[in-house]
Amino acid sequence: MPKIVLIGAGSGFGSRLTADILTFPSLQDSTIVLVDTSPEQLAIAAAMGRRLVEKAGSRATIIATTDRREALPSADYVVMSIRVGGEEPAIINRQIPAKYGVEQTVADTLGPGGIFYFLLNGPAILDILWDMEALCPDAQLIQHTNPMAMNCILANDASTIANVGLCHSVQGTARRLAEYIGAPADEVNYWVAGINHMAWFLRFNWKKEDAYPLLWKAMDDPAIYEKDKVRWEIMRYFGYFVTESSTHMSEYVPYFRRTPALIEATGRTAAQHIESFIQARRDRESRQQGILSGEVELPLKRSAEYSVNIMNAMETNVPYCFNGNVRNTGLITNLPPDCAVEVPCLVDATGVHPCYVGDLPPELAGLNRSNITVQELAVRALLTHDRELVYRAVQLDPLTQACVSLPEMRKMVDELFAAHERLLTI
Question: Which of 53, 97, 104, 309 has a 20 to 30 A CA-CA distance from 207?
Fold first, then answer.
């Protein structure tokens, strides 16, 4: 009878993963413990979870608590999706850099926004890891929190807990590529490796045949090109399709957001992304209220997330393949040792087994390394409480380098430190 702890369950992912759990026979007797620091959001997640259990006719038990240490003892799986400080820091992380010309989109992975997002989330992640070492040392940690690569490096450097980081960009992009070439999604297969939010479709096949010629042809269709301008341009100039969306990818490299004209051609401004971010939260809250009132159906269907498939494989010993974020123990040989890489993995009852990839094409490794250096400096800054390393991480960020002078970078980082002072530990 597995015990599954969902930390940050009030964010909306709690009900999604609960639904996933209830679709697997091997997990029907699970104890699902929902944890959130917001009593209000936790109550909503618990109500939705219990409704799903009733709908499924499951024997699963739903428990809700704001006390993480109460939840963790004897846990088999811990799934983490947290955002320290809520909505406000995420807005600040876009607004302040935009004043200096760094127009980020999501600002949760790299750049000044991603670095400060990590500095806010990192201490809470360390607390979770250390609580797990004390209360459930054999549990499998599944991370859904961004910035994924920084968080995975942190977990690997600071804890003994088995952990893997998950993102839906690989399977989501595979479905989109299938759509672009007119193939059923279940007929394509692929070999993808790199880093989180910048992994590469090294092979993409349809019915065992190389489908890249079809992708090159699809790129020439204006309607298809318009859907993914940045990623098509990356493929045009670097030869491979990248996993993360055009919106995300545009802020990891220096090519697409240096000037207002470039931003207009390939995406939206930081202010427009803030509006979308706030609207998405409103839509989520409206949907939750509709579900609780009975006006909106709460679907009991399996999502595309990997998390619960991993649990099922570990419970049944039926192997499952996925792409996960793990320590680079020689898996990608031309990326730095001990960085976080996103590679194909196999999981069974004995745990997660990452696959050897070897060298990436050197141009792709170069793009990855430009991000990895920033990630490693940010993690070192947090672990050593050295603010100077934060400045240096920002100074090496590819987008920031393209937009801001070194003196202005320092002013920008000063302003971010001041804005987040009450939440920072560094």
Answer: 309
